[in-house]
Structure formats: structure tokens, C-alpha cells
Amino acid sequence: MKILLIEDDIKTAQFIVKGLKQAQYNVRHSQDGLDGLALINNESFDLVILDIMLPGMDGFKIIDKTREKNISVPIIVLSAKSALDDRIMGLHKGCDDYLVKPFSFSELLARIQAVTRRAKASQEPMTLSVADLVIDLLKHRVWRGDKLIDIQPLEFMLLEYLMRHSGQVVSKVMIMENVWDYNFDPQTNVVEARICKLREKIDKPYKNKLLHTVRGFGYVLEEKK
Question: What is the pTM of this model?
């Protein structure tokens, strides 16, 4: 994960950079607000850790400029300003968390992990689709065209796995390990049985078949042109 630290205090920056590198993060450091904003605009980061009082441009202005350009990188503010109004201002401007100096590195690390988890979750798609087959990951519903398909929980999990790997051949072992989540006798036909039931629901009534057997290798969900 690539992190940008914008902090002009050398001792604080060294403390943070050392800890992040020990935690196996890739870190860039800038001491100037304008230089830091240029890095945000020109490079891709997974997280920005940002001081407020900076030369060149203050942290609140950096947040403004970043969000004005629709750059959605998560931002954690580090500041000696502990007043409630300052924290509220930072959150309103678009930072994702606000940590008051002095702080422990373990707390910063926990905040980084929490913010990046939330950011990742917010980027997860709510639906998956292959041709006219669509699944809603929140409501656990499946459509083929405008028809709602009645599907069992294990069938939904199997279909979700196939759709997340659409266009890729997945083997029986891969399916068992990722859908059933246990090892199994390779001679069993449990996967074939479930694939057959799923195919009856999503393919059998339709001319355009999507779930294909790749003999000797496994299965692939894709629209054949």
C-alpha cells in the first residue's frame, strides 16, 4: 500500500516514516503543502496522512483542492489543533479521520487500517453482471434480463464466485475451496451437481448460454460471441 505523508516537522515525519516502513508500507514524504498537493494530483496513493500547519499551503486547503478534483483518496489529518471546531472543519471538508498530536504510532496504525478498510468496502460493487445475468450482492437477488430467478444461498455463493471470475476457467478444487471452504475427495460429484442445478436456472430457459464446461479443466461463466 502506498502512503503519502505531508508533514513539515522533521522529527514527527521521521517517526511516522520509520514506523510505516517497518509495517511494510510504501511511503512518500513531502514537507511542503504545495509539493504535497502536486504529488496527490500527479501520482496514485492509497492514503494521505496530512498535517494542517504547513508551508506553502495549509492542510485544509489541500483537502479542498483534492476533493474539488474528485480525488477520493482517503485522508487522515494529523494536527496539534485539538479544538472541536477544527476537527469538525476537517471532517466537513472531506478528511476521513482526524488524529490530534501527540499520538502513539499504534493508534495511527489502527486508524490507517480502519480508514483503508472503509475505503475498500465503499469501492466494492453492489452488483455483478455477465451479459443480461445480474446479481445484487446486497439483496442476494439474481435476474436474467427482467426475470427474477429463485436461487438458494449456496447457489448464490457459487454464482457470485463464477461471476467474480467471469471469463476465467475455474476448477472443481478452486470452487470447493472458495465456495464450500474445505478440502474434498476429488472423485465426489458435488460440484457437478450444483453446477447442473445452477445451469437449469440461469441458462436452460435461454438461448444465449453463459455457463460452460471446459472439459478436463473446470467451468467458465462468459458470453460466447
Answer: 0.56
C-beta of residue 97 within 8 angstroms of C-beta of residue 77: yes
Count CB atoms within 10 A of the CB of residue 151. 19
CATH of region 127-221: 1.10.10.10
SS3 99: strand
E strand spans, 101-162 = 127-130, 133-136, 141-144, 147-149
* Residue extents of the structural domains in the chain: 2-123, 127-221
The superfamily CATH assigns to domain 2-123 is Response regulator (3.40.50.2300)
3-class SS of residue 155: helix
**Structural Rg of the chain based on CA atoms:** 24
List residues bridging with 214 in a β-sheet.
218
pLDDT tens track, the chain, 225 positions: 899 999 999 999 999 999 999 999 999 999 999 999 999 999 989 999 999 989 999 999 999 999 988 888 999 998 876 656 667 777 777 888 888 888 889 999 999 998 888 877 666 678 889 999 999 887 889 999 999 999 988 899 999 999 989 999 999 888 888 887 665 555 678 889 999 999 999 999 999 999 999 998 999 999 986
**DSSP β-ladder status, 2-6 and 26-30:** parallel
Contact 221, 163 (CB under 8 A): yes
Q: Strands across the sheet with 141-144, in order?
A: 127-130, 133-136, 141-144, 147-149
